[in-house]
Amino acid sequence: MYVFPLLFLILFNPTPQITGRELHYCEAGSGPILMRSAFAHGYRHGYEEGYHIGNIDINMGRRPRTRFSQLKDLSSHYSPAFGPRKSFESGFQQGVRAGYIDGFAGRVFRGVENLRVAAMALDQNPAPADPGNLYFDQGFSTGYDQGLESAQREAPQAEEAAISGISCPRSFPGKSITGAAQGTFCEGYRRGFILGHADGLVVGPNPMVLALRK
């Protein structure tokens, strides 16, 4: 008499279908950019971790943390399936930084929404010229750094960046690229710039910045 209920659970419970898969890839709106950029995916993990810790610290009346060494047992939850480890962990650190400052300041959890803006109308499939998303990811991380720097440099006069108005540098760290590869680098660059610039607008030249070092 217990066979039917058991079969019903096996056939209709969707959990086994997603077991072992990174659930962030299924997020509405932000999933495509997390699949194509290890940096963006690391940022997503880091923002959530940082926001949680910052929120706890302010509610416990603690002083703000200013070094990563003050964050004990902090894990990026990296897996080789996520792409280049260096890029993922670089994004993780930037996400922790932005998330911690937001959580400590009592702001809304804005990390996912900002990623959705950066991922707008993005195809989750790699470009033919960049099957491993190497150029896209490098463009995204470069764009994030420059977008962050741009907003902090221009604060408090800085305004929200529009993707159509972002100029892409014709360069790639350590390599020269042309044609279609340049195109996918620039697509990643503009989207990374949007995310970095959004963080810079909120954080600004904030003296309470978590240093990106151990």
Short description:
It is built from eight helices and no strands. With 214 residues, the protein is mainly alpha-helical. It has one domain (24-203).
Question: Which features does this protein show?
Answer:
single chain, mainly alpha, 214 residues
Structural description of this entry:
With 214 residues, the chain is an all-alpha fold. The chain has one domain. Helix content is 55%, strand content 0%.
Radius of gyration: 19 Å
Uncertain ranges: 1-20
H-E order: HHHHHHHH
The fraction of residues in strands falls at under 5%
Structural class, from helix and strand content? mainly alpha
Give the biggest beta sheet: none
The total domain count is: 1
Count, helices: 8
Mean pLDDT: 82
Helix % is 40-55%
**Straight-line N-to-C gap:** 59 Å
Q: How would you sum up the global shape?
A: globular
Number of strands: 0
